[in-house]
Amino acid sequence: DIYLLDEPSNDIDLKTIYWLEEFILKLEQPLLFVSHDELLIQKCATRIVHLENTHRKTRARHTLSSLSYFDYIEDRVHRLNKDRQIAIDQRRMAKERDQKLQRQFEKVQHDLRSISRQDPSGGRLLKKKMKSIKSKEKRYEKEETRQVVKPDFEEAINLQFNVKALPASKEIVSMEKEKLRVGNRILIPSYDLYISAQEHVGIIGDNGSGKTTLLKVIEERLQAKTELKVGVMPQDYESRFDIEKTPLSFLSSTHEKSEQDLIHNYLGALKFTYTEMTQSISNLSGGQKAKLYLANFILGDCNVLLLDEPTRNLSPLSNPELRRMLKDYQGCLISISHDRLFLRETCDTVYELSQSGLSVVDIVQLDVDSLN
At what angle do helices 120-144 and 69-114 cross, to 10 degrees? Predict the structure, then answer.
């Protein structure tokens, strides 16, 4: 009678995602699905329920919309920017008003101290003025509680890579007529792959085709190149975490105050609260763990990134920020992904891995309007 789906596109390949979209569009029964896949939401959702934490994650808020997803996001940004400007204007006006009131208070206070006892009527007038000033002060305090709160953007990833780019001509990966194996089983009898230092490469393929195995082979080959600083984000985040560590201790190497201050700033830019910074990694959400990897890559000045489905746990509002961040990345990026927007916006070349090897895919074919 009703379908309930929780992240239905997370662990499936592109062919199955296309099938899922067609299935949902033809479905006559009601469907409620949770998803971080922006294109899935755009194509299949007729109404949107947006749940978010605001005010430094101390308040919950929900929004209902009948707009398409991209129209909703555009409308939301417009509303948040409008509220932000109103909040800035209100605070500026309140500051000017309070400064004026403070000057009036100081003048009346000075006059009260200076007035002669021979002028009782003048003293009464000044006391009346002081009472009026204090009354205004209380009224202003009540008004401040009704001011628009400056909105905080849950999606913000206010970090960027400052890695020194390697020469564009430098070869990072050079594989010719290689065999891709899992134990004694040959997945791909022969494949070629060449990747240069500033290239951004995406890898797609059917589930079980060997994409993650290929990424591990690339990682092993790169370990011998001492001039490279390689950052790896696996699908299983905890395989490279000591989950009992806190985010602060995980990112620390020297534990010096300057390093600690920098880490605090980075985690704050990624919207970590102090509680989240100081609790064990095991308590973090998947999206927070993904952001922790990003902070680690930046602190480590990684000039090569190997990412396995990097967008799968980030919210649909954070994913555009990640795409912007990686699009500007000056190092070498090699990523497995089935996120079509990620592939289109961050990758120079997309390869499809199949039994016949690696073949280049036209990124335009991954466009929203060109999907089969």
Answer: 160
pLDDT digits (tens, 9 = 90+) for 88-143: 888 898 899 989 999 999 998 888 888 877 777 888 888 888 889 889 888 888 88
Q: pTM value?
A: 0.82
What whole-number distance in Å separates Cα of residue 140 and Cα of residue 370? 57
Question: Both tokens of residue 21?
Answer: 């979209």
What the block records as the tokens of 311 is 């967008």
Please say whether the beta carbons of 205 and 13 come within 8 A: yes
Fold held by 171-370: Rossmann fold (3.40.50)
CA-atom Rg of the chain in angstroms: 28
Q: Exposed, middle or buried: residue 170 (CB in 10 Å: 0-12, 13-18, 19+)?
A: middle
Distances (CA, A) of 329 to 200, 211, 334, 346: 9, 23, 12, 9
Structural domain spans, the chain: 73-144, 171-370
pLDDT in tens, 26-44: 999 999 999 999 999 999 9
- Predicted confidence (pLDDT) per residue in 333-361, tens digit: 999 999 999 999 999 999 999 999 999 99
**Quick one: DSSP state of residue 73?**
H
Sequence-distant (6+) residues with CB within 8 A of 137 are: 101
| Nearest to 87, CA basis, from 146, 142, 150, 143 | 150
User: How does 109-147 read in b/e, with b if 16+ C-beta sit within 10 Å?
Assistant: eeeeeeeeeeeeeeeeebeebbeebeebeeeeeeeeeee
CA–CA–CA angle 272, 344, 35 (5° rounding): 50
What does the alpha-carbon distance between residue 39 and residue 367 come to, in Å, rounded to a whole number? 10
The DSSP 8-state label assigned to residue 259 in this structure reads H
Which tokens hold the place of 132? 């009026």
Which is nearest to 98 in space by CA: 138, 66, 150?
138
Closest CA to 108 of 137, 138, 130: 130
